[in-house]
């Protein structure tokens, strides 16, 4: 956490009112139970400073994952999943120096996704609504460039799986997450103009 605080933050004395940012991650997981997961996420965003302390913007997210699970007799089941979402956000900044600021972000996003098992005839599609509150820190290392770190602290998500052609298998689910571990920290690079 100390390293995160040292490399992230924002200067409030900038003249630039808008920014483009992006974050990306990739994961490759393989355990002793013959399960292999590979996937990634790319999240570009556009933001606009209304005042030096208040900003609004919109973020996009593209993610995909492939899971391979081996069973006896050399049988492997492969599942692929993909999601797309759009999330408007609001940020409030508190300066902690010339080049660094803390911020709180509130967002509401919506999107869709699909899941498919290799060799199966059906494709599961769903829509979702997600809202969250996330603290962050931003650091300006140049007059047009900054980096930020955000901790996805409180997230609520509601999914609505779409029914198949016969009107069956339609169900809804929801979950509430409190992300207090280091895996919920994301980093971004920002270009201001």
Topology:
Layout: H1 2-7, E1 18-30, E2 35-49, E3 54-71, E4 75-95, E5 100-117, E6 123-140, E7 145-151, E8 154-161, E9 171-178, E10 185-192
Antiparallel strand pairs: 1-2, 1-10, 2-3, 3-4, 4-5, 5-6, 6-7, 6-8, 7-10, 8-9
Can you describe this structure in just a few lines?
The protein has 193 residues and is mainly beta.
Note down, in words, how this protein is organized.
With 193 residues, this protein is mostly beta strands. The protein has a single domain (2-192), classed as Porin. The chain is 3% helix and 69% strand. It is built from 1 helix and 10 strands, in the order H-E-E-E-E-E-E-E-E-E-E. It has an 8-stranded antiparallel β-barrel. The protein is elongated. The chain starts with a helix and ends with a strand.
Overall, the morphology is elongated
Mean of residue pLDDT? 85
Examine the coordinates and then state which fold CATH places here, giving the name of the CATH topology: Porin
| Total of DSSP H or I helical runs spanning 4+ residues | 1
Strand content: over 45%
Helix/strand/pairing category: mainly beta
Overall tally of domains: 1
- In order across it, which strands form the biggest sheet? 1-2-3-4-5-6-7-10
* Unreliable runs: 1-14
Number of strands: 10
CATH top level class name: Mainly Beta
Biggest sheet, in brief? 8 strands, antiparallel, barrel
Radius of gyration of CA atoms, rounded to a whole number: 20 Å
- Provide the CATH architecture: Beta Barrel
C-alpha termini separation: 29 Å
Helix fraction, binned, reads: under 10%
């Amino acid at each position: 956490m100390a390293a995160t605080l040292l490399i992230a933050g924002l200067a409030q004395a900038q003249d630039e009112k808008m920014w483009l940012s992006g974050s990306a991650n990739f994961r490759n997981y393989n355990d002793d139970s013959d399960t292999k997961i590979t996937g990634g996420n790319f999240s570009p965003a556009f933001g606009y400073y209304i005042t030096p302390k208040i900003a609004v913007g919109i973020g996009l997210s593209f993610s995909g994952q492939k899971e391979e699970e081996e069973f006896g007799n050399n049988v492997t089941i492969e599942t692929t999943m993909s999601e797309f979402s759009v999330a408007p956000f609001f940020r409030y900044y508190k300066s902690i120096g010339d080049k660094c600021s803390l911020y709180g972000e509130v967002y509401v996003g919506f999107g869709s996704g699909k899941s498919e098992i290799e060799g199966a005839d059906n494709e599961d599609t769903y829509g979702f609504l997600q809202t969250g509150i996330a603290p962050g820190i931003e650091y300006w290392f140049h007059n047009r460039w900054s980096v930020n770190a955000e901790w996805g602290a409180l997230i609520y998500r509601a999914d609505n799986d779409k029914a198949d052609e016969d009107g069956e298998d339609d169900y809804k689910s929801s979950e509430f997450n409190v992300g207090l571990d280091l895996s919920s920290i994301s980093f971004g690079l920002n270009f201001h103009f």
